[in-house]
Design goal:
This protein is an alpha+beta fold. 20% of the residues lie in helices and 14% in strands. It is globular and about 65 Å long. The structure holds 2-oxoglutaric acid.
């Protein structure tokens, strides 16, 4: 295992080693300048329009009020009116060709494939525009829902009963039981420079191999780093890595696109097959269709026949027959 922490590199052998050893890697100049400009402009226009139309989702406000006094989620909890700062732009597949291209980028094939294998699918495609004044999100993993290894004779958290509440076995697992493999891999395309001051993603190197999830209540003892890199850099990280948005104490936006992938047997965070605009189907290459989840995986995700290879966004359904 290399001791020095990952730095932006164009050497994919090094990048894969960083991913395996430290749980993340940085690829320098992943987006060439013309594409970087196009993607950043498309995102800025989309974010502005969603904001202007009252559609924007905001989190990261220091005094953001998300629930009422009875613990119920407020209907406009994630709005700037409730103190939200960071703007999320969800479901980017429908919002521009440049975004769709990120899902099938060769660096994604190479590096996400290194972690998950070949048939991975898109879980979430969204932007996080961390605005000045936004606070730390707090460390978490992107596969908090993955059941922990258990002893044959022990009680276990029934998988369908899992919640985000940090149960003891998730925060303090028993090392002798081994750890879960990665089933999620995340990518962050940096559309602005990422610095510690403007809220670069916080991460705990090596935490992907701990088998534990971070304690949301006390993160003071963790070895948190914030990899800094210029716009155009790609950050790739293992779904088990402890990470979260940093606080933006600068005076400009930190802009990134998170394209999150999972293994094909898990549920996608955004419902990609329902969400995608069917009008885009004809222009979508097969590789993109497969990544969205339209390729059946070992009979999972099918509509009728188990041997079906593809499903359509506008399927013919067999209903009740006489
Ligand atoms: O914006 C970032 O730096 C990370 C965001 C993140 O961890 C999340 O959305 O779950």
């Amino acid at each position: 295992m290399s001791e020095s922490l990952p730095e932006p590199t164009t050497d994919l052998v090094r990048a894969k080693r960083d991913l395996s050893d430290h749980g993340y890697c940085l690829v320098a100049d992943a987006l060439e300048p013309v594409l970087l400009k196009e993607t950043a402009e498309r995102l800025a226009a989309q974010a502005r329009a969603e904001d202007g139309m009252g559609l924007s989702f905001r989190d990261g406000g220091v005094n953001q009020k998300v629930v009422d006094d009875y613990g119920n989620m407020l209907p406009d909890a994630f709005s700037s009116a409730r103190g939200g700062i960071n703007q999320r732009v969800w479901n980017l597949v429908n919002k521009g060709r440049c975004f769709r291209d990120l899902v099938i980028h060769p660096l994604v094939d190479e590096l996400v494939g290194h972690v998950l294998g070949d048939a991975f699918i898109l879980s979430n495609h969204s932007a996080n525009i961390a605005r000045p004044g936004g606070v730390r999100m707090g460390l978490h993993t992107d596969q908090w829902w993955m059941p922990q290894p258990v002893r044959a004779d022990a009680d276990y958290v029934r998988p369908a009963d899992l919640t985000r509440a940090p149960s003891d076995g998730f925060v303090h697992p028993e090392p002798s039981l081994g750890i879960a493999p990665p089933v999620v891999c995340n990518t962050m395309w940096m559309l602005s420079d990422f610095t510690a001051a403007n809220g670069a993603t916080e991460m705990v190197p090596g935490s992907h191999l701990s088998g534990a999830h971070p304690n949301p209540g006390d993160q003071s003892g963790y070895r948190i780093v914030q990899p800094e890199a210029p716009a155009g850099t790609l950050l790739v990280f293992d779904g088990r890595l402890w990470h979260g948005t940093g606080a933006n104490a600068a005076n400009s936006d930190r802009v990134g696109i998170l394209v999150t992938f999972c293994a094909p047997q898990f549920r996608q965070q955004e419902n990609q097959t329902l969400a995608v605009d069917p009008a885009l189907w004809d222009e979508m290459p097969e590789k993109l269709r497969a990544r969205l989840g339209f390729r059946v995986w070992n009979a999972y995700g099918r509509i009728e026949l188990p041997a079906e290879e593809w499903v359509s966004p506008t399927p013919e359904r067999i209903g009740e027959l006489g």
